[in-house]
Amino acid sequence: MFIGREQELKKLNKMYQSSKLEVAVIYGRRRVGKTTLINEFCKDKKTIFFASLESSVEQNLESLSNAINYADTGISSNAIYKSFSDAFDKIKEMASSERLIFVIDEFQYLAQAELSISSLLQNYLDHHFKNTKLFLIICGSSMRFMENQVLRYQSPLYGRCTAQFKIMPFDYFDTGKWFPKYSYEDKAVMYGITGGIPMYLEQFSPEKNVKENLLDCIFDKNAMLFEEPSNLLKQELREPATYNAIITAIASGKTKLSEISSTVGLETGLCSKYITNLISLGILKKETPVTDPNSKRPIYLIEDFFFRFWYTFIPNNMAAILSGRIRQAYKESIESRLSDYMGLVFEKMCKDFMLFHDENLPFIIGEIGQWWGADSKTKKQVQIDIVAASINKQEGVIGSCKYCNKLIGEDDLKLIQAYAQTMNRFDRCYYFLFSKSGFTSSLKKCHQPDVRLITLSDLYSK
Fold this sequence. Notes:
Putative ATPase (AAA+ superfamily) protein, Trna Endonuclease, Chain: A, domain 1, ATP binding, globular, Rossmann fold, ATPase_dom, 3 domains, five-stranded mixed beta sheet, Arc Repressor Mutant, subunit A, 462 residues
């Protein structure tokens, strides 16, 4: 079952119809569904699909030769090209008279095995493939490699791609499509657990409820997802124990660099380098008040929801999981804490609703995030869940997100109106109140043109 990625498929198919040389760079973190997207696009199209190996030059050349032979004749062959130049010459011949897609998957492995491959590709794109009907797709899972060695100015391939796709996890709306029978609340919870990563979503059954899915797919020592964060850190980084300590510190509420470095026992400069690596992998994120992007006091949060869920629930329940008693502890140790966990998830859902799905915005959003600062009168810290600024920064939406079982009332509206005065950044403010459970009758009757009340069901209505 293929879900989502409509815009990416539309763009790829438009490029395919051009019949001229096209070069698409597709990249994103592991498990995000890059290869699935490519396979869906290549369906019923003549394709050389070469999955690069984390191996020697010789084995990669053999694998590429097999892929070319299969695409050319429809049968496997043991014939191996003498060099990548010979292989590319054959591809040029095949693409001279008909549209041909040539996919290099996990390009970083090929580049590590054959250091000159980027320069060789540059030469062929500039001189040999130029007048063919080739559609080259370069795909990679190493974000840093693809951004630094393929897309950056110094790369031999810089300027050769005609489109680039950074594949992101599904948002809450597309994630919900995996569980068509679920309630809106359960769809939101599954988004908060998986972060919209397709490979994680594939582990869960839409026929089971949330509890059974979690017990089977995460809180089981034999489940694939049980050790997923640890495996990813080992795969991507050289010192997984140190990175694990940093993520653990942030999961426990340490969000400032000084707090994190002190907890982990690292000098702040060194700790900052580790954090930068985790940010490049999409595991952590750096946040500043949306109106002050250059703030010298940022906070660091876990951006990958699956990592956040794992570090929130697994370590504290490890004994129960390993002893096979987690089912008995589930209600108290997990279910009772899900609502608190979902607070930040709901904020992200509300931001994405505004950015991608809301058809009734008062203006086009220029930037969006959260805001915090001190109230000059009370000297107390104020935090606003969502602040969205117009492109000219004269108008703003002040948003409050409540993922709880109580109805939101007039006091909540008055509070964010007061916070807007504290922030004092916009000529005109609009107030969006998001609530999982709804609003009091008195607030519903409070008709103010600049106020919108938005429920969880509204987020899923389209």
